[in-house]
Amino acid sequence: MTAEPDAPKHRTAADFSTARLEAFSDGVFAIAITLLVLDLDVPDPAGLHGTTLAHALAHQWPSYFAYLVSFLVIGIIWINHHAMCSLARRVDRRTLFANLLLLLTVSVIPFPTRLLATYLTAQGGDAHTAAAIYAATMVAMGVAFSLLFLAFAHDARLLHTAIPPGDVIRALRRFGIGGVCYLATIGLAYLSPIAMLAVHALLAVYYCFDQLAPARRGR
Amino acid sequence: MTAEPDAPKHRTAADFSTARLEAFSDGVFAIAITLLVLDLDVPDPAGLHGTTLAHALAHQWPSYFAYLVSFLVIGIIWINHHAMCSLARRVDRRTLFANLLLLLTVSVIPFPTRLLATYLTAQGGDAHTAAAIYAATMVAMGVAFSLLFLAFAHDARLLHTAIPPGDVIRALRRFGIGGVCYLATIGLAYLSPIAMLAVHALLAVYYCFDQLAPARRGR
Amino acid sequence: MTAEPDAPKHRTAADFSTARLEAFSDGVFAIAITLLVLDLDVPDPAGLHGTTLAHALAHQWPSYFAYLVSFLVIGIIWINHHAMCSLARRVDRRTLFANLLLLLTVSVIPFPTRLLATYLTAQGGDAHTAAAIYAATMVAMGVAFSLLFLAFAHDARLLHTAIPPGDVIRALRRFGIGGVCYLATIGLAYLSPIAMLAVHALLAVYYCFDQLAPARRGR
Amino acid sequence: MTAEPDAPKHRTAADFSTARLEAFSDGVFAIAITLLVLDLDVPDPAGLHGTTLAHALAHQWPSYFAYLVSFLVIGIIWINHHAMCSLARRVDRRTLFANLLLLLTVSVIPFPTRLLATYLTAQGGDAHTAAAIYAATMVAMGVAFSLLFLAFAHDARLLHTAIPPGDVIRALRRFGIGGVCYLATIGLAYLSPIAMLAVHALLAVYYCFDQLAPARRGR
C-alpha cells in the first residue's frame, strides 16, 4: 500500500498511510455527528403538567437549532478533512498529532451543543457563557484544522504534489480571515447567543461553497 | 483510485470517490441503527411497585414495536443507499449535500423513535403528535433520498453508465407514489398511531422486495 | 471488484459485494460491543449513604459479569461472522435479510445485558425473567446465524467454492446441537440465572475454539 | 486479498487478514474515544441554586481532566496498535484473542473515566479507590498490548518480516519498564489521585514520542 521501494529504510512504524488515518477519522466524525441525536430529549410525560406534547416540543427549539448547526459543522469539516487528506500520500508524527487534536475538537462537540441547547434561552449571563463556550469550541476546531494544514504543507514528502508557496500563503490568509470571524463569534456570544449560532450556520455553509467552488472554476 | 488520466485538471478537492462517501455514510447508518437500542429502557426495580418485571416489560411493547420498525427502515435505506451508490463513480457538490441531508434524516431517527415509544399509548392528542412527527421524519428521509437520486441522475459524468431518461422518469414516478404513501401516513398518524407504525413496517418490507426484485427479473 | 464479465445482465443493484456487507456489519458489531460500557453505572456519590465507593462498586458485580459475557459473545460472533463471509464472494436478497436479522439480534444485546445486570440478584421471579430474556436473545442470535449460513450454503453462486453437502450437514448438525444447548439455557435461567450466564461464557469460549480448531487440523 | 496460492490448505476460516482485524479494531477505538464525551455532564439549570453556569462548569474540572487524559491514552494506543499491525500480514487464534482482550480494556475506559471524574475530588478513600481502578485499567491495557505483541512475535509466519530476537527482547524490556511505571501509578493513586492522572498523561505523551522516535533515527 505505502510501498516505498526506493527508500525502505524510511519505512517506520510511524509512517501511516493516509488510508488508515482517514478510516479512523471517518469513524470519529460519523460517531460524533450521530451522537448529537442523544442531545434531543423526549419530554417526560409526567412533566407535561397539563400542556401538550406539541407545546413541550416547540419549547425545545434551541435543541433542534443547536443540533442542526452542529450537524452541519461536523458534516462540512468532514468534507474539508477529506479534501485535505486527498492531497497527502502519507502522514508523519506532526500530522498524526494535529489530526488527533482536530478529532478532539470534533468529538467534544456534542457537549457544547447540549450545553447551548440547555442554556440558549436562559436568563442572565448563563446563555452568554454557554454560547461563548460553543463559539470557543469552533475556534479550537478551526485552529486544529489550520495546524493540520500546516503540518501537511510543511513537508512536501507527505504530499502527492507539493503545494506552491503562493497557494499555502493564500490558504493561510483565508484561514486567518476565517479565524478572525470565528473569534468574533465569541464576542457575539455575549451580545446574542442566537445570532452567534446563526452565524456559525452561515459560516459552515459559506466554507462549504468556498471549498467546493474550485471545482467550478476548473482548477 | 479515482484516477482520471484524461482529465487531471478536473481532479479537485471536491471530487470525492464514492468509496469515501460510502464509508462515512456506512458509519452513520451503522451507528444510528445501533443507537436505537438506547431507546429500550430497563424498568427501575424501585419503580415496579409490586408488579412483576415481566409485566413491566410487556407494558413497554410500544418501545419494541418502534425499535423494530426503525431498525427495519434504517436497514432498508442502507441497502437502497448502497444500490444507488453502486451506480455512481464519483460525487460532486450536489450529491455531497443531498447525501448529508439524507444522513441528517437517518441519524435523527432515534429521536422520533423514542418519542413515539414514549407517547404511542398516551391519552389525548399527544400520541397523534408523536406519530405525526415520526411519519414526517420518514417523509423527510424519502425526500432526501429522491434528491440524492436526482443529484446523481442529473449529471451522467458522475455515473458508471448514464441512466436512460425513461428509467429516470419511472424511478421518479415510483418515488412520487412512495412519497404520497408516506405523506398519507402523516394523516394516518392522527387516526391511529399504531396503524401508522404498522404501515411503515409494511412500506419498508415492500420497498426492500421491490428494490431487490429486478435481480429476479433478470434485468 | 465483483466484476462478472460473463454475466453482466445479472449485475443488479441487489448484488452486493461481501466487502460492503462486512463493512456495515463490522460497524454494527464494533458499536454494539462498545455501547455495552454504557451499562456500567457509576454510583451516585449522594447515594452512597455512608458506605464506601469500593463497597458500592463490589455490589455491582452482576454488571461486570454480564458485561464480560456479552463482550465475549459479540466478539466471538464477530469472528464467526467474518469466517463465514470469507467463504462468500457476493450476497443476494436472502443473505442480506438474514444478515440484517443477525445484526438486529447483535445490536439489541446491550438491552438484555443491562436488564440482567439490574435484576440478576433480584428477589423472586424477576431474576428468572431477566435471565430467560437474555438466554432467548442468544437463541435468536444463534438462529439468525444458522439462517445466514443456510442462505449462503443454499446458492453455490454466492460462494468462492461450493460447500460439500456433507460439510453442510455436519455444520447444521453442530448448529442444531448448539441450538439445543442454547435453548436449554432458557430453562436454566429459571433454576439459576448466574449459572445461565456462566454457561453462556463457556459456550462462547467453546465455539471460539471449535471454530478456530480446523486451523490446527490442517483443513 | 490474502491469497496464498502455494498453500491453499492452510487457508482456514481462522486466517484473518490484518485488514479485517484493523477495521474492527479501528471501529472500537473510534467509538470508545468518542463515547468519552458522554462523560461530560451539562449542569442541570434547576440545580444551579443561585450560582452561575460558569462556576458550575469550572467546578467540573475533574471531568475535563479525565476526558483529556483518556482521549490521549486511547489516541496513542490506536497509533501504537496500527504500528504493530503494520508489521503483520495475517492473524491467528492467539492474536485474535489477545486483540479482543486489548479491545476489552480499551472499550471499558469510558467507565473508569467517568468514575474518576465523579470521585476525583471526593473526601476520604473514595477518590483513592476511583483512581486505583483507573490506574489498574491502564495496567490491564498495557498487559493486553504486551500479550498482543508476544502473540505476533511468537510466530514469524504472521509477520511480513520476522522480528530479530534482540528486538523482541528490547521491546519486552521496554514493555516491562512501562509495566512497572503503570503498576506504580496504582500506588500513586492512594497518595494523590490527581498526580496519578497527570502521570498517565505524561506516560501517554512519552510513549507516543518514543514510538515515533525511530522515524527520526532513520531506522
Automatic annotation (TrEMBL), chains A, B, C, D:
Q: Which GO cellular component does the record give, naming just one?
A: membrane
Q: Which domain of life is it from?
A: Bacteria
According to the record, the segments passing through the membrane are 21-38, 64-83, 95-111, 131-153, 180-207
A Pfam family per the record: TMEM175
- Give the bilayer topology: Multi-pass membrane protein
What is the catalytic activity of this protein? K(+)(in) = K(+)(out)
Keywords from UniProt, A to Z, are:
Ion channel, Ion transport, Membrane, Potassium, Potassium channel, Potassium transport, Transmembrane, Transmembrane helix, Transport
Q: Could you confirm whether the keyword RNA-binding appears in this record?
A: no
Q: Where in the cell is it found?
A: Membrane
> One GO molecular-function annotation for this sequence?
proton channel activity
> Which family would the database say this protein is a member of?
Belongs to the TMEM175 family.
PANTHER family in the record, alphabetically?
A: ENDOSOMAL/LYSOSOMAL POTASSIUM CHANNEL TMEM175, ENDOSOMAL_LYSOSOMAL PROTON CHANNEL TMEM175
This protein is called what? DUF1211 domain-containing protein
Q: Per the UniProt entry, what species is this protein from, by scientific name?
A: Actinospica durhamensis
